[in-house]
Amino acid sequence: MKTASLLAGIALCFSCQLTATPASDNPATRTGRWQEDLDFFARELAVRQKDLFKLIPKEEFDRKVAELRSEVPKLSDAEIVLQLMRLLARLGVGHTQVKPMSAISIHALHVYPIQMQWFSDGLAVVAAAPNYQGAPGSRVVRIGLMTPRQVEAAVAPYIPHENDAHLHAESPRYMTMVELMRQEKIADPDGRLLLTCAKAGRGEFTLEIGSEGSSKTSRKLVNAADAMQVPTALCYKHPKAFYWYEYLPQTHTLYIQCNQCTNEPGNPFVNFTRNLFAFADTHPVQRVVVDLRFNGGGTPGIVKPLADGLKSRPALRAKGHLYTLIAWRTFSAAMNMALSFRKHLDAILVGEPAGNKPNHYGQAESFMLPNSRLKVQYSTQYVRQIHDADPLSLDPDIFVPYSLNDFLAGRDPVLEAALHHPLQ
Predict the structure, then answer these.
(1) Beta carbons within 10 angstroms of residue 325's beta carbon
(2) Is 11 a member of any domain?
(3) What is the mean pLDDT of each run of 10 residues along the chain (424 residues)?
(4) How many domains does the chain divide into?
(5) Which of 185, 235, 316, 394 is deepest in the core (most CB within 10 A)?
(6) Is residue 240 part of a domain?
(7) Does 93 lie in the same domain as 207?
(8) Alpha helix (H) residue ranges in 19-142
């Protein structure tokens, strides 16, 4: 198998070299460089993306690439990138996309110094630059002249998504892209964005978010929790950790948060689980909660030691004793993990729908366009996990919404629902 894979990889590389001569204008010009990139994009995606022409008719794909190629001279870099984003989003595959951060890193796209997030009761500002005091923690009423839902519908064609959950998870990031907001005529032609917000005790107020300095993505933002001195819910205790656990003695609960299906440098997941179960084996544990709400995926096999450890301890995975928390940002390998825990360990899923379909295109890889250095992610496999149906999302067994008021009060109703669900 390894020899066959190696030979296939060599053949692919050799094929790429044979077809690398661009049918473009002079590559020394901007137009030529972009056209060369578009030729490379079309050629490589056709070879690499699983079932590309099942997802989009070949005639349509070729036509759209050709149209974009011909329009390069009159389009800005940002407009070219946005058109590529829209073309890939047309596939309806969450894993296949132009990576937004690569577009920002080459300065084709810029971002406003503000971060927003959907809650069950609407869109809110969760962080902003210090000069936008009062914004963090406020509810968004209008963006420009549109409601947040209308803006989400306007940017949806640029966002690769398979269900509304992933659209909700991703759309706030796209709403802060200056060039996208300008193209959709939500922001002014100069990039100025009007944000109408509301806050308890203050009523409605309008912020004018300027595009100047918006390329400084490293600008320090003030988050809502700090600005409003929000009590820290347990789930936000270690936001940068790949994975961690804590014992809750009042309910004899082992709370495990897994934020990435990736080995943490210096602390491989297998070592983490070894320490975790050494603790569990010496303490009274009646309930195990695995929190995957902030997990966007990674390598599926990484988390196997946790599943194996639970499987070998019947008391920890007994029906009604194991809970998995999911939400919109639960995606890819994390969604697979939640589904596997329900199917094979009788875990009860609590929270909101996960961000991609159980049956989906995944195992993402990427390539870079040679001139612009734009990064394109594609899917190499079709993963079928449910054979008698094709649901749009992995839904929880116990649906628990998470509202802005919950966030501002430091409450976590999803964890509370798991902790208070009757043991069987």
Answers:
(1) 30
(2) no
(3) 37 35 58 97 98 98 98 96 98 96 91 96 95 93 98 98 97 97 96 94 90 54 89 94 97 97 96 97 97 94 95 93 97 97 97 97 96 97 94 97 95 97 87
(4) 3
(5) 394
(6) yes
(7) no
(8) 30-48, 52-55, 58-71, 77-89, 100-105
